[in-house]
Amino acid sequence: MRAAAAAATAAAYSLLTCSRLRRSSPTRLPSSLPLPLPVRRRHRPLAAMATAASLGPEAARSPSAVDPPAPPLSKFKVALCQISVTADKARNIARAREAIQAAAADGAKLVLLPEIWNGPYSNDSFPEYAEDIEAGGDAAPSFSMMSEVARSLQITLVGGSISERSGNKLYNTCCVFGSDGELKGKHRKIHLFDIDIPGKITFKESKTLTAGQDLTVVDTDVGRIGVGICYDIRFQELAMLYAARGAHLLCYPGAFNMTTGPLHWELLQRARATDNQLFVATCAPARDTSAGYVAWGHSTLVGPFGEVIATAEHEETTVIAEIDYSLIDQRRQFLPLQYQRRGDLYQLVDVQRSVSG
User: Fold this and answer.
1) What's the chain's Rg over C-alpha atoms?
2) For burial by CB atoms within 10 Å, which of 41, 84, 170, 303 has the most?
3) Looking at the annotation, which residues are catalytic?
């Protein structure tokens, strides 16, 4: 009863005040009575609007996105070496070397290899074919070959991926080599391929592999490259972070399968390129229908408008195409997304940059 009476009294004062406002100067309410609800909330929308106005497009990335640096080369050839993979490791290494050498002879300044190119893609094979990259030499013949051939041919090499042994852990690892043969970056697959599509495919990389903990952006002789491996391409946040770190190109060695490949492989590449307005290059192994895991193939280069510049079918081949970084600026002028983001409504946080900065 007391609450009802108080509410009625407040309503009466509110009506009285409104009436007096229409006839004469404002009347101050007794301090012992609660203010009418409209008066209490009058300034909050204005404050919210002021806050929203102060958060521009740059606030949609935290820390703020950086512009891509001027690349050493604005136009160059890239080679996607879609090689066949067998259970013979020595043969796989020799075949990869031959493909890289042929690509360089055709003028490629950047060469990509497939995911897990030095042995079969299986949980049983990962430990057997793993290499100790830190030890190098005989403990890492695939790694050593890539370093040597990058130096001798003076190319940038995104070395697909191999199984890496580090202590008692195994990783699915991509090594990026500069034209001096030095290791410029090492990406350990962040998102492990654990899927179960009944009646189609079940695979659990986590049975043997450990997920990586770091994003990988590498400055090379052919520009700033963000690296992911296969399943990493499904996570748009990773690509967005790479774009916010100023990448010109995203490289994804991958081995999509015969179930997800036809549906998603090209779609995801074009989506990552379109969303971030940069180049995306992928490299897959050639299809072997007798293998335990059958790869889809279709290594592809996609431009910053989502256009497929060049692609393969499923057989062993090398795709050679041209990357022209001037298209990035052009496409971003056509669609100035970086100036249209709503920092007042959403924000992508780069956790590692926030901590290190």
Assistant:
1) 28
2) 303
3) 115, 189, 230
Closest CA to 322 of 152, 67, 97, 80: 80
pLDDT value for 42: 45
Which position has the token pair 């370093």? 147
Residue that the structure tokens 């057989």 belong to: 315
The Cβ of residue 92 has, within 10 Å, a number of other Cβ atoms equal to 23
Q: Which amino acid is at 179?
A: S
Cβ-proximal residues to 11 (8 Å cutoff; 6+ apart), any chain: none
Q: Which two tokens stand for residue 187?
A: 């990406």
Ranges assigned E (strand) in the chain: 61-62, 75-82, 108-112, 156-158, 162-166, 169-177, 183-188, 194-197, 201-204, 217-220, 223-227, 249-253, 279-283, 300-302, 308-311, 317-324, 348-349
| Residues counted in the chain | 357
Do residues 299 and 114 make contact, with C-beta atoms less than 8 angstroms apart?
yes
What is d(CA 289, CA 278) in angstroms, rounded to the nearest whole number?
34
Residue 213 neighbours by CB under 8 Å, 6+ apart = 188, 190
Q: How many CA atoms lie within 13 A of 297 on its CB side?
A: 18
pLDDT for the residue 51: 53
pLDDT at 2 over 80: no
Per-position DSSP letters for 141-163, written without gaps between them: HHHHHHHHHHHHHT-EEE---EE
Residue 36 has pLDDT above 90, yes or no: no
Mean pLDDT calculated for residue range 42-47 = 47
State the Cα–Cα distance between residues 117 and 99, nearest whole angstrom.
Answer: 12
Tell me the per-residue pLDDT of 201-240, one tens digit each, with 9 for 90 and over: 999 999 999 999 999 999 999 999 999 999 999 999 999 9
Its pTM stands at 0.85
Residue 49 in 3-state DSSP?
A: helix
Is residue 104 within 8 A of residue 134, CB to CB? The reply is no
**Tell me, what's the pLDDT at 357?**
67
Other CB atoms within 10 Å distance of the CB of residue 7? 11
The confidence score (pLDDT) of residue 183 equals 98
Residue 187 CB neighbours (<10 A): 27
**Calpha distance 220→79 (Å, rounded):** 16
